[in-house]
Amino acid sequence: MTDTRLSELIRLLPGLRLSTDPGDLEHYGRDWTRRWTPAPLAIAFPADIAQVQAIVRWANGASVAIVPSGGRTGLSGGAVAAHGELVVSLDRMNRILGFDPIDRTLTVQPGIALEAVQKAAREHRLTYPVDFAARGSCQIGGNIATNAGGIRVIRYGNTRQWVAGLKVVTGQGDLLDLNRGLVKNASGYDLRHLVIGSEGTLGIVVEATLWLTSPPPETQVMLLAVPAMDALMKVFAEARHRLRLEAFEFFTDRALSHVTAHGGQDPFDTVHPYYVVTEFEAPDEAAKGEALAFFERCVAEGWVVDGVIASSDAQAAALWRLREGITESLATHKPYKNDVSVRISAVPAFMDDMHRLLTASYPDFDVVWFGHIGDGNLHINVLKPAALDNEAFVAQCEHVTAMLVDTLRRHGGSISAEHGIGLVKKPWLGSVRSPEEIALMRGIKAVWDPNGIMNPGKLL
């Protein structure tokens, strides 16, 4: 390490693990977008809060930008380090710090994986209900930084609803202890919620206290084959009316084809244009009878043409894999991703406009879309043809995204539902936030991070 700035950091923190290994620089310098060439200064692996504070204070003095790093599963370029930044990885800060059975809270370090939090909750006969396919690799700190949603938002909401307290190191190196797990705290601005979703631009989450809840009663999983796009919301309305929904997800035939090519098993003999996987409470025979009545009504109305109800946990997991395996099955194709949302009531009209736009704009591209239709969130994946230059591919996709933004604006939607703004969506922030809002956001960042060292260039 010949850089004198790093030599000074090592002198200040002799116990800090610091890496300039080329493999580490590449791995920790990029996220799942794979669109920017990673070029960090180094990777720091702090072991505790004091080391994080010392790193931030050093960075201010050395004029070095910091990129906080979680599980590297981001999809918007929010954790990219391409301009000599110091990546601060929270991998080593991955412990459970405490459980309170009365408050039903779990206090954890930010580098702990979501799946480990869910497992710890189950050990106390409780549940942490935020959930998505990357549960084994994404980290709680990153979930908080992007206010992650996932497959059970329809029942439990986003990450924001489950954060009882936070400890945060600001851009000046100060440690804030926010809310302290209080259920009621009417004492001015709740800075905890300002940090949630801020994408590491205000500070670094170094500890989180999470609310847990009672596990749901026994559930069932159902996969439905839907013949037309306009039937999707009719099926959803009927399901929400009759069932106690845990999740309601949809995907297209193109999505299913990629998952089955990746090892998933299609339970139907015929290909259908759309599919719904839904999970709902089924604690007794009455609830199971209501589920059957729901299915029969949908078939009678022509909204559903086939269906499967899981008869075991293994079959339920296999049905869920058809939805949760989509992102992994597309990874090798380097997809260009859009993550958009509209009000639930606007979903049918928006989907119709979106479908026409995508069909006209990508006549020769493989476009895979799916989403959390029950909360108005749709994911669009455009796969790069092998013969097309990557730069030309991205340029064409960004041209279409600009038109998609106009469509979202007409329907009152957002260009980012749950993946954050990062670098990818920064050009379109103004489609969601007014100039006055953006000016206030810049002012807030200037207070928290006066030297602009925290994840610069992202979001704003």
TrEMBL record:
Domain FAD-binding PCMH-type: 36-215
UniProt entry tagged with the keyword Transport: no
UniProt xrefs under SUPFAM superfamilies: FAD-binding/transporter-associated domain-like (SSF56176), FAD-linked oxidases, C-terminal domain (SSF55103)
Domain of life of the organism encoding this protein: Bacteria
Alphabetic keyword roster: FAD, Flavoprotein, Oxidoreductase
Coiled-coil annotated spans: none
Cofactor (UniProt): FAD
PANTHER family: D-2-HYDROXYGLUTARATE DEHYDROGENASE, MITOCHONDRIAL
UniProt family annotation: Belongs to the FAD-binding oxidoreductase/transferase type 4 family.
Protein name: FAD-binding oxidoreductase
Source organism of the structure: Luteibacter sahnii
